[in-house]
């Protein structure tokens, strides 16, 4: 055998196994067609991974599904709930402003009736919601407005500039217009009713209602002035509450509104 045609059998490892390609059985046309229709065969690892991805996608779709919108409450119960919320929010806001006035003292003009009016006019949105709730909503809106009105300004004796700088004009006008709309809604309501046993409402505060002893110099001293201030604040708050409770029960709402 020529040297150029010799095979180097020594370079192949002794344990090498040559694949018997010639002896591999050929696939028939039917087997090839079935294999192509079945698609590619995935390994177990790939199949498990695909199942995991599919499961995560389904869970994500379930978690992103929006909850059904809650139906807005209607009727007398809903109107009374919103009414109570308005009263509570008004008390909370007024208490916050009163605390600032007391902290700043009588010589400060940092908080005036302008601030009170601006705070109260923001409740008109809730009042309008009540107005759209039928007769019970109109009744609650009317009572809420009568509660908001006295809180739309501060105690004019609390500081030298409590009357403000003219910032009450627009809020007051807006509150007045809203009240006129509500009165129009209640115009056909029955004004008569059994009004016996209604809560009494105390008169407006006067200096004669103060219980601080005798003014030795003809004028209250520092301690007495503090007592008068606290008694007045308590009196006014209790009067507002008495008027509110009476409004909620009275039948003659027109006469009661004029009386208060």
Explain how this protein is built:
By secondary structure, this protein is mainly alpha-helical. The protein has a domain at 75-199 and 216-259. The chain is built from 9 helices and no strands. Helix 5 (124-131) packs parallel to helix 7 (169-185). The radius of gyration is 42 Å and the shape is elongated. The protein starts with 28 loop residues before the first helix and ends with a helix. The relative contact order is 0.08. Mean pLDDT is 79; it is low at 1-22.
Order of helix and strand elements from N to C terminus: HHHHHHHHH
Structural class: mainly alpha
Could you name the ranges where pLDDT drops below 50 across 5 or more consecutive residues?
A: 1-22
First-last Cα distance: 132 Å
The main pleated sheet reads as:
none
| Spatial extent as radius of gyration | 42 Å
**What is the 3D shape?**
elongated
Number of strands: 0
Query: Can you give the mean pLDDT?
Result: 79
Name the helicity range. Answer: 55-70%
Tally of helical runs: 9
Percent range for β-strand residues: under 5%
């Amino acid at each position: 055998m020529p040297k150029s045609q010799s095979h180097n059998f020594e370079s192949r490892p002794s344990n090498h196994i040559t694949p018997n390609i010639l002896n591999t059985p050929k696939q028939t046309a039917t087997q090839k067609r079935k294999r192509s229709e079945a698609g590619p065969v995935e390994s177990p690892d790939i199949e498990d991974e695909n199942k995991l991805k599919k499961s995560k996608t389904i869970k994500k779709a379930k978690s992103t599904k929006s909850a059904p919108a809650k139906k807005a409450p209607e009727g007398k119960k809903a109107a009374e709930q919103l009414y109570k919320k308005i009263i509570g929010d008004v008390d909370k806001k007024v208490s916050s402003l009163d605390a600032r006035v007391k902290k700043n003292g009588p010589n400060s003009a940092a908080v005036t009736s302008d601030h009170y009016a601006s705070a109260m006019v923001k409740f008109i949105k809730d009042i309008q919601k009540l107005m759209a709730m039928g007769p019970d909503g109109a009744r609650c809106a009317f009572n809420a407005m009568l509660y908001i009105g006295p809180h739309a300004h501060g105690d004019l004796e609390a500081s030298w500039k409590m009357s403000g700088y003219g910032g009450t004009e627009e809020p007051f006008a807006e509150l007045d217009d809203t009240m006129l709309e509500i009165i129009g809604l209640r115009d056909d309501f029955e004004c008569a009713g059994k009004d016996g046993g209604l809560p009494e409402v105390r008169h407006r505060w006067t200096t004669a209602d103060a219980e601080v002893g005798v003014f030795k110099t003809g004028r209250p001293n520092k301690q007495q002035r503090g007592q008068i201030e606290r008694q007045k604040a308590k009196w006014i708050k209790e009067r507002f509450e008495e008027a509110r409770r009476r409004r909620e029960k009275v039948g003659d709402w027109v006469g009661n509104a004029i009386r208060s």
